[in-house]
UniProtKB/TrEMBL annotation:
<feature type="compositionally biased region" description="Polar residues">
    <location>
        <begin position="218"/>
        <end position="232"/>
    </location>
</feature>
<feature type="region of interest" description="Disordered">
    <location>
        <begin position="215"/>
        <end position="234"/>
    </location>
</feature>
<feature type="region of interest" description="Disordered">
    <location>
        <begin position="49"/>
        <end position="79"/>
    </location>
</feature>
<feature type="compositionally biased region" description="Low complexity">
    <location>
        <begin position="1"/>
        <end position="30"/>
    </location>
</feature>
<protein>
    <submittedName>
        <fullName>Peptide transporter</fullName>
    </submittedName>
</protein>
<feature type="region of interest" description="Disordered">
    <location>
        <begin position="1"/>
        <end position="33"/>
    </location>
</feature>
<dbReference type="InterPro" id="IPR036322">
    <property type="entry name" value="WD40_repeat_dom_sf"/>
</dbReference>
């Protein structure tokens, strides 16, 4: 501290009163809590700054030159811009050990003395009370820096006792709103609700491949007659069929398996079987849109004349009765692909306007427009020239980005292959017969943290 900034000439009475008050403040602060030199400095600096200049007519700068007065005024303006606003509640201020984060003690401008009852609260108590807030803030910043980061939860769906084996599930799926997930094996299925606050997921419905359903396996209900096919033909195929694939929307669970059977269960009715269909050809993959309006599944058919295999996609719409609001299933729509390669994967876009699929042997990927559901058309097909390193061999999944159909991600099982992000260019199509040619944008070398 320089002498010019602290030198003040006062009357003996005011000087003695001020020194006595300062000694009382420092002694009171020392007795109640040990203060650092930095805290004492801020208390004294705040008192000097907040004192009324009209009460100090003997200040040496008042009698100085105009240049010195201008320099002192500029320094005071700069210092006042750095100070924080005064606080009405004296208990809300905090003192930290960091200079840049230190807050000065609020002093009333009307009084010339500092209250001796001012205490310095402990920083440790404040940090302990805000630990939870800091954790949430760290997680929020981490999620912004790493958008692909998601908090991980791990649950046990079945308790394991001594001498018993844990159940094995052959497939699983999760709902679009991430509130439910389903597990299936050859002859049973289970749906659980996801609640991170609970220690374990809650079973909301379950059932068997025979059509029985209920809230748990001890309260199963026999199925009613299914409207999809004739009862005799369906019963004959359902005797020894096994489940293989499953997809879950916010309202329905669809399961397909051997004997070309497709079942649809209503989650809102405790998993009741509301539709069952037996196809003439094997079902290789299935999907349902998040709004539960369209079901798509790929089959491998045969030409009636030549007997050659043909890749087909079946679109099954789900409508609601205007009176009862019960789901209804109009006749399906069949799409013939220009390739004989069997379909490996199938995915509906988030808005159900586009359908992406890939083939098994030649690893092709396609995009079909469903904006006119009764007139689906091919709008994009893969180009082998963009994949010179054969990174799309063995495609495991294709997915359009939500809200941007120009971007699509492709994953593969090829050795050391990275997920590909391509530009589909489907929004740039002009004309009915035009088919877009995609181009590769990036390879995603690392996913997650």
């Amino acid at each position: 501290l320089s002498s010019s900034s602290l030198s003040m000439s006062r009357s003996p009475s005011s000087s003695s009163a001020g020194s006595g008050t300062d000694n009382k403040t420092l002694s009171s602060t020392t007795t109640k809590e040990k203060s650092s030199l930095l805290q004492i400095f801020h208390i004294v600096a705040s008192k000097i700054h907040n004192s009324n200049p009209e009460d100090k007519p003997d200040h040496p700068l008042t009698a100085g030159t105009p240049q010195e007065q201008e320099e002192h005024t500029a320094k005071e303006n700069y210092t006042s811009s750095l100070l924080e606003p005064a606080y009405d509640d004296r208990t809300n201020w905090k003192i930290l050990d960091n200079v840049s984060n230190t807050r000065t003690v609020p002093i009333d401008n009307n009084s010339s003395v500092v209250s001796a009852d001012v205490t310095i609260p402990s920083t440790a108590n404040y940090q302990a009370s805000s630990t939870h807030d800091l954790d949430e803030e760290k997680e929020y910043f981490f999620a912004n820096c790493f958008p692909m980061y998601r908090k991980r939860f791990q649950f046990n769906t079945h308790t394991k006792f001594l001498g018993t084996k844990s159940k094995l599930f052959i497939n699983q799926t999760i709902s679009p709103d991430c509130t439910k997930f389903a597990l299936i094996n050859e002859h049973k299925w289970e749906i659980y609700s996801i609640n991170p606050k609970d220690n374990s997921p809650q079973l909301i419905s379950c059932g068997k491949s025979s059509g029985e359903y209920g809230p748990d396996f001890n309260q199963l209900t026999e199925p009613t007659q299914s409207p999809g096919t004739a009862p005799q033909s369906l019963k004959k195929k359902k005797k020894n069929w096994s489940q293989r694939f499953c997809k879950l929307s916010n309202e329905f669970l669809i399961i397909s398996g051997s004997h070309n059977i497709l079942n649809i269960h209503d989650i809102n009715q405790t998993g009741k079987l509301i539709y069952s269909y037996a196809s003439n050809f094997p079902i290789r993959c299935i999907d349902i849109d998040p709004r539960s309006q369209i079901i798509a599944y790929g089959i491998t058919g045969k030409d009636r004349h030549t007997g050659a295999e043909q890749a087909l996609i079946v679109i099954q719409q789900i409508t609601r009765n205007k009176v009862t609001q019960e789901p209804e299933f109009p006749p399906p729509i069949t799409i013939t692909l220009p390739y004989r390669d069997p379909i490996n994967t199938i995915q509906l876009s988030h808005d159900a306007k586009y359908l992406t699929c890939s083939t098994a042997l030649e690893s092709r990927f396609l995009v079909i427009s469903l904006q006119k559901i009764n007139e689906p058309r091919l709008i994009m097909k893969s180009v082998r020239s963009i994949d010179t390193s054969l990174e799309s061999e063995g495609i495991t999944d294709t997915k359009l980005f939500p809200g941007n159909p120009n971007l699509m991600c492709i994953t593969s099982t090829a050795f050391n292959s990275s997920p590909l992000v391509i530009n589909t260019k489907i929004t740039q199509i002009n004309g009915v017969r035009t088919v877009a040619q995609p181009s590769m944008l990036i390879r995603v070398d690392e996913i997650g943290c």
